[in-house]
From TrEMBL:
Superkingdom classification of source: Eukaryota
PANTHER family assigned to the protein according to its UniProt record, in alphabetical order: AMINOACYL TRNA SYNTHASE COMPLEX-INTERACTING MULTIFUNCTIONAL PROTEIN 1, TRNA-AMINOACYLATION COFACTOR ARC1 FAMILY MEMBER
Organism: Cristinia sonorae
Keyword Magnesium: no
TRNA-binding domain ranges (all copies): 257-363
Chain intervals with Low complexity compositional bias: 185-195
MF annotations from Gene Ontology: tRNA binding
Cellular component annotations (GO), alphabetically ordered: methionyl glutamyl tRNA synthetase complex
UniProt-recorded name of the protein: Nucleic acid-binding protein
Amino acid sequence: MNFLTRSGLRNVWRHHRFHPFSLESNLFRKMSSVAALAKLQDPLKALVTGSAEAGSPAYGQSEKDQAEVAEWIEKISAGEVVKPESLKDLESQLTSRTYLVSNYLTAADVALYGALHPILSQLQPPQYYSHPAITRYFDHIQNRASVRKTAESLSPAFSLVPFDLENAPKLERKADPPKEKKKPAVPAAEGAAAPAKKEKKDKKDKEAAAVSVEATEVKEEAAPAAGKAQKKEKKEKEKKPAAEKKAPAAEDAGEPVPSMIDLRVGKIVDIKVHPDADGLYIEQIDFGEETGPRTVVSGLVKYIPIDEMRDQYLVGVCNLKPANMRGVKSFAMVLCATHKDGKEAGIELVRPPAGSKPGERIYFEGAEFENATPLSQLNPKKKIFETVQPGFTTLETHEAAWVNPVTKSVHRIRTKDDVCKAPTYIGASLS
């Protein structure tokens, strides 16, 4: 490291000749960052050091920045930052930031990008849309030249993660609550007289109301029975439109449940590699619809060879909002099983039962789900898929299922004939 060479020390000493203690403190801060960096495991440590050598400021440009960099790397190496329960706090911190420390890239940013990669690389649009600040930050860091160069040398550990940001739902910003108008001050004498005036006015109003009620009762007693019936009928007619104006309950109201998701049997009738993204397939999948096959984009190139995808039957999620993937709009999602040790250990298609036909309905076992109708389209703002998805898994029998996180009840995913399965994985995550 240049700052530890004799010539380097001489130059730094000249620069700090009136502040000798700042030199000692600066070196101490940098050494603290290096010590924290040593706690990172490979290939994450290789990514951070490689990016620094490729031109990124590693440890910060000031003592304050260096202390923050060391603190962030320490937390990342301990695994605290990327725990599921910590993502909400991280989302809040990144909402107003481009980088973790100051306004430039540091080793802390590279470390956080590398730590988030195993999580972000497995998410589908509805899931990463729910963390807009983390997704924006991650995409920015992964496309920095120094980071990308090092990441590609360590591929596939830090492969480029494609995001469909064009179709991300717009963030809803809550309006500030209306300010309360201050009441004008009332002079003391006038304020004291106000209660007496009000009491006098209320008394007159009550007397007038009593006279009006008595007059009405006299008129009603004198009116014929037919007139009363007409009044009653008129009132009932006036009430009816008000009841009819009540809006019907939204079809996605209530807690997210798996039966809201539209699963169907699909068959791949054509497949090719995306011309602008070598990690994506563009598939034409027959879901038994009169409009013909749907175009579907999936990031499976590095996990399932194209020859093992052709003409295959699969399970498709068919009511996600269409997403633009590198210029190609995707109209469904292929349901896959990811090995319990992570995607690097393998991904495979979830298979419908033998003899299934394109378009055949797939549902979740259980009286509350079997006869339910899926939503026509999942609303990304409701976060239905990402709420339900953590319960998707494969049982010891390789059968695909949803496990209720509260009751622990098991609901297998099936057609009318049999249960869908992952060929080889047990305890896999389905997404």
